[in-house]
Design brief:
alpha+beta; Nucleotidyltransferase, domain 5; flat; about 500 residues; 5-stranded mixed β-sheet; 4 domains; about 15% strand
Length: about 500
Amino acid sequence: MKGYRVYNSIKQLKDKGFKRAAVAAQLQINRRTVDRYWTMTADEYEIQQQALKRGSSLDDYQGQILYWLRAYPTLSAAQVCDWLKEHYKEDFRERTVSRYVKRLREEYGLKKAPNSRDYEAVPELPMGQQVQVDFGQLLMPNVDGGQTRVYAAAFLLSASRYKYAEMQSRPFTAADLVNVSHNCFRYFGGMPREMVFDQDSIVCVSENAGDIVYTYEFEKFRQETKMTIYMCRGADPESKGKIENTVKYIKGNFLSNRLFVDDDILNGSCLDWLSRTANAKVHGTTKRIPAEVFKEECEHLRPLTGCDETVRPVVCRTVRKDNTILYDSNRYSVPLGTYNSQPEVRIETKEGVLYIQTVFGEPICEHRITSGRGLLIQSKSHTRDRTTGLDKLQNDLDTQLKNRASGYLQRIRTEKARYARDQFRIVQSMIDQYGVPAVLEAVDFCEYSNLSSANILKDYLTHKAKELPKPEAIATALPVADAKYHVTTQKRPLEVYAKVGVR
């Protein structure tokens, strides 16, 4: 129910003395819709409808927006605006989208799931001084129909609110954090003077009255970059409130309701989102665009140290069940059995070559890096030798057919190389069903017609079988027993038989 029917029904129930809540319950519509029409006159309603008929630039996407709102109850208007930019390259104003989404929620009774949290204001810091770091995780639906837990590392320059984030489908290690920090500094084009962390086990081993013992990887990173590290005390979110809000923003505006494919695709989309939305929108506290303020803050950052831009960090990949790894949205093969013996491998890239190693740095294999997406790059040495089994299947068929179908079978194998095994299985099933003489007749037909498909052979035999006359039914004599049976009949009065046939 919508449009004038809603308005008219509300007015009728109001005239009958119903309260607003009762009207909403009776019509199964949102209470706000009732409030909007409650005091509206017929002339006011007509004016409103005329305005709506002029249409909105968002009307073309109404169906898509309604689908998103129904599929993802926690979806915000800001995220709808971002998705329109991402999927349709439409640059709508967020306020316009917000009003449109609000109207759709009211009209169709689509309530937004609550998800609120309060944050305390924190003092502003000088430019170039500090970056806050925090971690988050979220279960995301994946392409296989299941769920994947995604771990996110978020970075925020305190002065400009300029953001960076990186995700992966396994928990972060100390080595991962060092690599992601280098990536972040390259993204910023410089380094701040200090980093703020939680007391996370991948950063520090222990703390005793302020004496912090860092993990080996992070201590090496701290010395190389000459970075001042500030560790927050437990249960002290105020000391890094900015980044905690940022983690929530990344989870709610980017990760939430998104389909997980692989780490590379997710991080590529994240970089686009950072540029398109996260660093391009006016910040609620500073009332400035982070990307514009960053132009000032980047001048206060220290030069890059310990993270040469020409050197890419060593990263790890999980070996999939099909003995492949994902790199840059493509699958690269590893030797059979790697999945069982090496569930995780290291990868390095140099001069267009992907080097796959054990976690201890021992070489496993290498591939030339291929452009494109969704490709399988497979070495012949990483596949089973299937020719032996196919040879045996072909020879067995040829033997059954008295070596009179050798040319036909070889032509199938040549012209239908990818499906030769399936083709041979069809031929075998025809032999089992119709016998060798019938199949040889069909083979002669196929060779005469220069046809090499087993499906045509099957069609020929099926059609031939329909043309055969059906055998006549043979009368079968019923067996007669030699034994004598004594039958006793029931004696009835003559009046019973006299009534037979009387109507």
